[in-house]
Design brief:
The protein has about 625 residues and is of the alpha+beta class. It has 14 helices and 18 strands.
Amino acid sequence: MRIRSRLLLLLIAFAAVPTVATGLLAWRGAERALAASVDEQHRRTALAEAEHAATHVLSLATELEAALLHQDPTTLGPAAAQEFLTRVFLRRDRITQVGLFDAQAHLLASVFVDDPEPFARQEPQFRRHDTVTAAEVEDFQRRAAELLSRVPAGRAYTISAPYLTAVRHRPAVVVAARESGSHGGGLAAELGLEELSQRLTTGGESHERVFLLDDRGRLLLDGRAEHTPLQEDFSARLPEARGARQPGQGHYEEDGQTWLAAFSPVPELGWVAVVARPREAALAPLQALARSTFEVLGLTLLGVLVLSPLLARALARPIARLAEGARELARGNLGHRISLKRRDELGDLAHAFNDMGQALETAHRELLGFNEQLAAQVEERTRELKQTQAQLSRSQRLAAMGDLAAGMAHEMNNPLAAILGNVQLMLMDLPEEDPSRRMLNTVHNQAQRIATIVRELQLLSERQQSGRSPVDLHRVLNRVLEARGPELTQAGVRVDRHFLSGEVKVLADTQALGDVFSRLLVNALNALRDRPERTLTLATHVVDAQLVKVEMRDTGRGIPREHLERIFNPFFTTKQQWTGKGLSLAICHRVIEDHGGSISLQSDEGVGTTVTLVLPTAPTQGSLV
């Protein structure tokens, strides 16, 4: 029997298809209608939760702003400022700490509860506030100072990203308001988010889950106790909600179960409120309809199954061989061929299948070669792009910091000169035995320290573009090593030099380039202190006809991996005590960049650090400096 006759029998058997299609369409329509109703309900709930979260946080920002409008706390005395902060602190139960800062983001006064009993005797309302530890107080003051220093222009307040407190791991945010008057101080408060968590716990219906995500898609608050805030990540499971600016819907998988979710952004905070319910629970009313539909489908299919054995013998075997051939191709066996000697349409299909396998095998071989070549090119371009982006980003940050440093240095020089001059005049007028000389000497020394930092800031902001000439790189390195020779000998440091033979000339300012090497050498000496092996290796290499590379490698303590991204940032230092430093590497980066070169740093903690400088070579003409 030909395929045409067999298809006729098959069409007769599938006379029940309209019944099946009608049942499925009815079920699908009901499913869509119910899903739309559930989505709308979830969307309204998510919008309400988002508005409540925004009100909970932004109302505190409004209160801080209003407090600054009615009173300038930076003009108050210590006792009055403390009383002002206490009034602000007692307005809300969920404020754990509040602090007053001056225009330079320095803490002037603060209020918090570290021992509830003494506070309760002073003011019973303190019982409603959570206690904090010393570490949490220090963490808050640091976060508040950073937040106040970057309040956006034209804004009276700003709000930090959510975080867990340092000791008790409670979810919180810092709300800071900037005073717009001449003093420019500010207020900052740490707001606990437990109240929002309690609302999420009681706000959802049965089987419903309500939670908040931060701007990176991490779980911020959840009504379910088994989930730890800021640890569960929804950025991959629910990517539509991450950083959402408009309400929307989505779904995600959890514990083998599909959850339907609606989300809405929290105004001004960058958070997202999410309402989710298991798909099975949300679409439960469809189960009865599904059972009825499938009963009808079962009866229809039963009639089809009665006729299927008649067709199985004629069609099942060749179709099974075709299916097995398709599976072999899917498993990657592109050399598999089907041997089917038939003169009907199935035979033609087998021949077409074999032709397709031959074409796929040929194309696969060509594609593998192309993929290998493309992967190598992509890897190389990606590495170059990452290096270029990192260098550009660092240069932009240093340029911005340099502009800021120039303004700061200009504004600080005049008052600093007046301070130094007046202190020196007072020291000249006081006799040696005067007890005030010791205090004035301390003031004089600290003012000179500030002057040193100002000079460093000026170096960071200056861009030296002229006065360059061909310089022998080896001579500059040797001069720096000779100048630091006593320090190297005293520290027990062995210096290995691996210089290229002859002169290596670069177009540079001798003093500026020598200052860079001197700063790097000082950093290496600090890293080599108390190390069992103290070796400093300097090497020069020619990259090509236009570039030369200098490597300075030490066997010091090394730098932690998490600090490497920030090592060239101004005022960042890995020293245990900050002594007015933290600008050397930033200045080195600025000088090398001004010379048209680049500087990079690699370090393994406990092994050592390697600093690499790449500089353009000087033209062949020109005199040696």
